[in-house]
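JOB MANIFEST
job_type = single_chain_structure
chain_count = 1
residues = 237
[input]
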Amino acid sequence: MGLAVSLAAMIETQQFAGASKTNTSFLTPFERRLAVRVLPRIPSWLETYHLTMLTLLWSSLILFFSYLAARDLRWLWGVSVMVGLQYVTDHYDGKIGKYRGTGLVRWGYYMDHLLDYFFLCSVIIGYAFILPERSRYQILIMLAIFAGYEVSTFLAFASTDRLKISYLKLGPTEFRLALIIINALLVQYGTRQMINGLKYVNIGAAIGLALMIYRTHKAIWALDMEHKNAERLNLSR
């Protein structure tokens, strides 16, 4: 019992690297200024874990509205509203925990990023409802590519203790904004243009993923070499 308490205390006092993120996207400075005004206005009964778990609701409704949009593309406005709401709850769940000192750091890290994957899947599956069957392979490729971004991010975090969520000045906020713009274009012009452009989106996303992996592997390689050189220096003394 005493050992268990000691271990729990040790874990509690250790700084968890996943509690902080590195985000250098275009919209980050604006988001930081906005957070100063928003955080004090969030109702006291709304806790960090409430905001995190709401992604399940938003993702379910994205699937529902996308299913309806297969018959009437105007339902995509509902999808866009859910994307916006998911941005709000996902963006402020951790921040409200830090602001109030009530955050569940490790639980929040796990559930927040797991539910981000659910959100991604709901969006891509939703487009599969809308687009013709001949586009399904492109949808599958898209899911694999964007899942690759998440896998690379968390493997890099395990290797560096640094959680970086933006690349080339693009991050989760820009991704959600792109989804809303795509939905508006679909409502206005239909699915034909998206069918033609889907493969180019995948090509661009694949190039971005390859570039991210290349830069990440170079950074991790440099860390390993720095560690090896330090070991050699210590042995030579």
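[summary]
Residues 1-13 have pLDDT under 50 and may be disordered.
The domain at 47-226 is CATH 1.20.120.1760 (Four Helix Bundle (Hemerythrin (Met), subunit A)).
exit_status = 0
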